[in-house]
Design a protein that fits this description.
The protein has 310 residues and is α/β, with parallel strands linked by helices. The chain has 13 helices and 11 strands. Strands 1, 2, 3, 4, 5, 6, 7, 8, 9, 10 and 11 form an 11-stranded mixed β-sheet that branches. Helix 3 runs antiparallel to helix 4 and helix 10 packs across helix 13. The model has no long low-confidence stretch (mean pLDDT 96). The structure holds pseudouridine-5'-monophosphate and manganese (II) ion (MN). The site of pseudouridine-5'-monophosphate has 18 residues, from helix 2, helix 8 and helix 12.
């Protein structure tokens, strides 16, 4: 591979993140699309800062990732987080969008695919998010499978999530993760979580009960020389904080119908459905989403501590 060591800056680590990585300390990567496109304003800014704070209180350093003025940034200061939360027209950037954004000086929030790539490239081993992207329910017509899956199949990182978004075809997404060699474990559960819901009803092959086990699985994956790929730690939202399953199913059906009627496709479909769920549940889906993300961020910080201790 040709190394571009000279020329324009393409990735910048904050000083704190760079120092912590250099000394082998715990760092947790956080994505920015959930902030810019996944949560309503102005709550999104509050949440972005709260998540960073949760990582710190758990003894790790947060690295929120986004692209600002063409430079991929790993670790943002408060004003930069504000930009991600409030800048009108901020783009949603997957892995394939990083190069055009860099070349054209664009700004954007990074999805799981772009965030996991940038985190791994910076030397970060643990990443927390809400729910992964995956195979959409209309896949047979649209061929819409999130680039998250392809990126995770090739990126050596531990991703803590509450499963995949329930707007997706969950069994098909689990199949694709198996085919692509993504390791999946349930955290203190034998069932794959359902994002807003404690369970998706699908079984998961492996269960772990401690953060140290997650770090150890990744170490063994690397020692074995299993080709680069992610370990997905699926951490369910606590049952008492989940969205009411009946309400979830009803409003999701409405949201899917509304998306079909409005002809929403491509990158816009995930934000459209999430927003529809928030409004259709009077904000209850937002609370469940946040409860899930908070739990994931805390667990990710514990796993990062185990990783750096090893
Ligand atoms: N999880 C959330 N909210 C979100 C997302 C995940 O709780 O908004 C975002 C992530 O950035 C994920 C993206 O990578 O949705 C998937 O979008 P798509 O289906 O277009 O690939
Ligand atoms: Mn898509």
């Amino acid at each position: 591979m040709r190394e571009h060591t000279t020329g324009p800056e393409v990735i910048r680590l904050s000083e704190e993140v760079a120092d912590t990585i250099a000394s082998g300390g715990p760092v947790v990567a956080l994505e920015s699309t959930i902030i810019s496109h996944g949560l309503p304003q102005p709550r999104n800014l509050e949440v972005a800062l709260e998540l960073e704070d949760l990582v710190r209180r758990a003894g790790a350093v947060p690295a929120t990732i986004a692209v600002l003025d063409g430079v991929a940034r790993v670790g943002l200061d408060k004003r930069e987080v504000e930009r991600v939360a409030a800048e009108p027209g901020l783009r949603k950037l997957g892995l394939r969008d990083l190069a055009p954004a860099a070349a054209l000086g664009a700004s954007g929030a990074t999805t799981v695919s772009a965030t996991s790539f940038l985190a791994a490239r910076a030397g970060i081993k643990v990443f927390a998010t809400g729910g992964l992207g995956g195979v959409h329910r209309e896949w047979a017509e649209t061929q819409d499978e999130s680039a998250d899956l392809d990126a995770l199949a090739r990126t050596p990182i531990i991703v803590v999530c509450a499963g995949v978004k329930s707007i997706l075809d969950v069994p098909a997404t689990l199949q694709r993760m198996e085919t692509r060699g993504i390791t999946v474990v349930g955290y203190r559960t034998d069932e794959f979580p359902g994002f807003y819901l404690h369970t998706s009803g699908q079984p998961v092959d492996w269960r772990i009960d401690t953060p140290a086990e997650a770090a150890e699985i990744m170490r063994r994956r690397e020692r074995l020389g299993v080709p680069d790929g992610a370990l997905v730690v699926a951490n369910p939202v606590p049952e008492d904080q989940q969205l009411d399953p009946g309400l979830h199913d009803r409003v999701l059906a409405e949201a899917l119908a509304a998306a079909r009627d409005a002809g929403v496709t491509g990158q816009a479909i995930t934000p459209f459905l999430l927003d529809h769920l928030v409004r259709g549940t009077d904000g209850a889906s937002l609370e469940a989403n946040l409860a899930a993300v908070r739990g994931n961020v805390r667990l990710a910080a514990e796993i990062a501590a185990c990783w750096s201790a090893g």
